[in-house]
Design brief:
By secondary structure, the chain is α/β, with parallel strands linked by helices. It has a domain at 83-326: 3-Layer(aba) Sandwich (Aspartate Aminotransferase, domain 2). The protein contains 14 helices and 15 strands. The chain has helices at residues 17-26, 83-93, 104-116, 129-144, 184-187, 198-207, 231-242, 262-266, 292-295, 314-326, 329-353, 378-382, 386-398, 419-437, and strands at residues 50-54, 57-60, 65-68, 122-126, 149-152, 165-166, 176-177, 190-193, 212-215, 245-249, 272-275, 286-290, 358-362, 365-369, 401-402. A seven-stranded mixed sheet has the order 4-12-11-10-9-5-8, with helices on both faces. Strands 1-2-3-15 form a four-stranded mixed sheet. A hairpin with a 2-residue loop joins strand 13 and strand 14 (365-369). Helix 2 (83-93) packs antiparallel against helix 10. The longest helix is centred in the last third of the chain and has 25 residues, at 329-353. The structure holds ligand KE4. Ligand KE4 binds next to helix 4.
Length: 439
């Protein structure tokens, strides 16, 4: 029987507050967490319970300090507790936290998104990326009258039943459920093919009439695996040839890899775009958008139903607007330079230690793939040395650097990561690579 009672905090001698919190959490939350990756099981250690964050720094419940590269998995592109975001939040909260009615501020946020992402003339906000993706897929199916959906292995679009799917046997076959509880019927209309595989894309489009081709334009859920040259353009052409909508899931890349997201970098215009994370500045917010002609199929303008109690929540809108206001041209120059310095330094540190890695990076995102071969798809990502990655992460955490606790995630540097944080990170990485090399 545990000495720790789940109903109150006790700090017993010989333990730490994080350890006690974890023991209590295990009795109250599945795996002790509210989202799986936070449990740090992929890197073989217990989760860190965060006490507070400020800028690029996190402190845990025992007062340990870390340079944070998770940054809430992407929303905190300006760092933790940015003064401008906090001021906007407190001003909004003083006027009430939620109304279930339209506000001027959500109209302003929609206008700012439309200015930044020209393919979005109209959008609908939701409270999570999962909801936004689910709704965008429903819209694509409604307007095309089709059910089939094409996605890419290793891409993650939230935990929608039809998208928790793994490739079926044969390139263009129906997908199989990737989780218990997902009915076969839910994934029967989903086709999963390898990322960066032009031939598989051609074969799938020859075999199916899709409602949508859904992609993270720069995947970051198998680690960062950029599209091959011309692949996004092929997605656009394939969707047009197939009569399908092209849907870019920019929940991670939106407002991060460029002012207008990955579609701006590539010069490829999707029919629908899914946004999240940065749009809420650290509060629950996401959105899906596209042309007015498409979006006016959504209720109450049209008959495609979608709703949400807290959609466009005033606090999330305030934090999102304040965050976007910080993202001017100079901000992207800074974020791009920080990411490049980290990527180059990490690659050099690994090479000096004789550890074979590949570093994939784009403004605001990077992944250190523990693979001697370039990672161009999910099979490559799964071929990484996961034990070495886990050991490297544990060594980084011991040295005050908080990397994403999974090889299949990305580092999220922010505007708060300055030269001092980069130097500390690279020094810790050098030691951590040396530790891994001696394993
Ligand atoms: P949410 O439902 O978690 O707000 O968004 C789902 C989602 C959709 N699309 C993309 C490209 C995403 O990366 C996500 C969620 N991202 C993960 C991190 N890779 C969230 C972290 C977590 O699940 O705890």
């Amino acid at each position: 029987m545990s000495r720790i009672r789940p109903d109150r905090i006790t700090t017993l001698p010989g333990t730490t507050r994080s350890a006690e919190l974890y023991e209590r959490a295990l009795a109250l939350l599945p795996g002790g967490v509210n989202s799986p990756v936070r449990a740090m099981r992929a890197i073989g250690r217990k989760p860190i319970f965060v006490e507070r964050g400020d800028g690029a720094t996190l402190w845990d419940a025992d007062g340990n300090r870390y340079v944070d590269y998770v940054c809430s998995w992407g929303p905190l592109i300006a760092g933790h507790a940015h003064p401008r975001v906090l001021a906007a939040l407190s001003e909004a909260a003083a006027r009430g936290t939620s109304f279930g009615a339209p506000t001027a501020e959500e109209v302003e946020l929609a206008a700012e998104v439309a200015r930044r992402v020209p393919s979005i003339e109209m959008l609908r906000m939701t409270s999570s990326g999962t909801e936004a993706t689910m709704s965008a897929v429903r819209l694509a199916r409604a307007v095309t009258g089709r059910e089939a959906l094409l996605k890419f292995a290793g891409a993650y679009h939230g935990h929608v039943d039809g998208l928790l799917a793994q490739a079926g046997s044969g390139l263009a076959a129906a997908a199989l459920p990737a989780s218990p509880g997902v009915p076969a019927a839910a994934t029967a209309a989903t086709v999963v093919i390898p990322w960066n595989d032009p031939d598989a894309l051609t074969a799938a489009c020859a075999a199916h009439r899709f409602a949508a081709i859904l992609a993270e334009p720069i995947p970051a859920n198998m680690g960062v695996v950029p599209p091959r040259e011309g692949f996004l353009q092929q997605l656009r052409a394939s969707a047009d040839g197939n009569g399908a909508l092209l849907v870019f899931d920019e929940v991670i890349t939106g407002f991060r890899v460029a002012r207008g997201g990955a579609q701006e970098r590539a010069g490829v215009t999707p029919d629908l775009t899914i946004l999240g994370k940065v749009i809420g500045g650290g509060l629950p917010a996401a959105a899906y958008g596209g042309s007015r002609a498409l979006m006016e199929h959504i209720a109450p303008a049209g008959d495609v139903y979608q709703a949400g109690t807290l959609s466009g929540n005033p606090l999330a809108v305030a934090a999102g607007r304040a965050t976007l206001e910080l993202l001017d041209a100079a901000a992207y120059d800074q974020l791009s330079a920080t990411t490049a310095a980290l990527a180059a330094g990490l690659a050099a540190a690994a090479a000096d230690a004789g550890v074979k890695v590949g570093v994939a990076a784009v403004c605001g995102l990077l992944t250190v793939h523990f693979n001697s071969e370039p990672v161009v798809d999910y099979a490559g990502a799964r071929g990484c040395d996961l034990d070495a990655y886990a050991a490297w992460c544990r060594a980084l955490l011991d040295r005050g650097v908080y990397p994403p606790p999974s090889q299949f995630e990305a580092w999220f540097p922010s505007l708060a990561h300055g030269e001092r944080e980069v130097e500390q990170t690279l020094a810790a990485a050098r030691d951590a690579f040396a530790e891994v090399a001696c394993r």
